[in-house]
Amino acid sequence: MKLINKQIGQGLIECLLGLTVLVVITVSVSEQLLPASTEQIDSLKLSREVTWEKLRNSAKTKLSGRYSLNNDLELVFEPIDRLLSVNLNGNNLRMTDTSDVSIYRMARLTDSWEAKSKSDLVSRPASLVVNQILSGPITEIIQDGLGRIFLAEELESDSLIFGHIDSDVVPENALIER
């Protein structure tokens, strides 16, 4: 009987020591690791929020054009831009600024090709429309003459406008820089 009681006593002491170690670990986790984990989760949420904001916060993000697709497309867009003056901006990679936002570097490829003014809404697509070449005073005289000869109002210059771009269909809030 004495042998069994010694083994039970030793097992009980080892079990208590194991439980004590588990309690110490649990307390240290709750005091150290959980606040650190919560802080990192909040920081990650802030990085995501800054990256996905509809309007770019220039204090917390920066724009870059350094990515491989942009480098390859620059070879194609540069001659087109020189020829037509479309002004396609390649700095459209929105990245979190690590000096302001935490260590979580995030990036979002945005559409920087949208028009930022009413004049851009007309001039940029108009430079890409082939019919823009046909617009002019000589063409209008020819159109008016053909419209009167054939009695077709659709051919007259005030009805059939070559290369016309209607900018009124774009809402004002779409002109805000993103």
Structure description:
With 178 residues, the protein is mainly α. The protein has four helices and three strands, in the order αβαββαα. The protein has a three-stranded antiparallel beta sheet with strand order 1-2-3. The chain is rod-shaped, with a radius of gyration of 34 Å. The relative contact order is 0.09.
What labels would you give this structure?
single chain; mainly alpha; 3 strands; rod-shaped
Brief overview, please?
This protein is mainly α. The protein contains four helices and three strands; from the N terminus they run H-E-H-E-E-H-H. The longest helix is centred in the N-terminal third of the chain and has 50 residues, at 2-51.
Multimeric organization: single chain
Overall shape: it is: rod-shaped
Estimate percent helicity.
40-55%
pLDDT < 50 stretches: none
Cα Rg: 34 Å
Mean pLDDT: 77
Structural class: mainly alpha
Strand order of the largest sheet: 1-2-3
What is the H/E string?
HEHEEHH
Describe the protein's topology.
Layout: H1 2-51, E1 61-64, H2 68-84, E2 93-96, E3 107-109, H3 118-128, H4 137-149
Antiparallel strand pairs: 1-2, 2-3
